[in-house]
Design brief:
alpha+beta; PurS-like_sf (chains A, B); homodimer; ligase (chains A, B); about 35% helix; 2 helices; EC 6.3.5.3 (chains A, B); cytoplasm (chains A, B); about 80 residues
Chain lengths: ~80, ~80
């Protein structure tokens, strides 16, 4: 089973990487970009084939290691 | 219009961040993880409302700035 995890900064948290992308794109002549935000994308290959237990385990991984829940949100897609 | 971009390392390219995640999860007792890979996730808010031109523009942004196409793949979702 494969888990796809998106970790993004919460609204209101300063996103210097996103701002850098915005400015760089603007400087390169792409003036159609109103805002940019950058997050992390993590793919995990899991041994588990049980969806419910895999979801619980990956959620725990996110809370304990992959995301800083003070400033970041995460979402999990299993397939 | 919103563009969601995933930038991931090509197969065969060393992924030290992914390896660090694998090892850290293993050390924390999550032994159900066979492999981990880390990529970037970028969200852009676009002024454009025309799907075809937006797709072309974002593709150009990826090739010129957001992805290093020598070692990275990218995928674009528009909505």
């Amino acid at each position: 089973m494969k888990a796809r995890i998106h970790v993004t900064l919460k609204n209101g948290v300063l996103d210097p990487q996103g701002k850098a992308i915005e400015h760089a794109l603007g400087n390169m002549g792409f003036d159609g970009v109103e805002a940019a935000r950058q997050g992390k994308y993590i793919e995990l290959d899991l041994k588990s084939t049980d969806r419910a237990s895999a979801e619980k385990e990956v959620d725990e991984m996110c809370r304990k290691l992959l995301a800083n829940t003070v400033i970041e949100n995460y979402s999990i897609d299993l397939e």
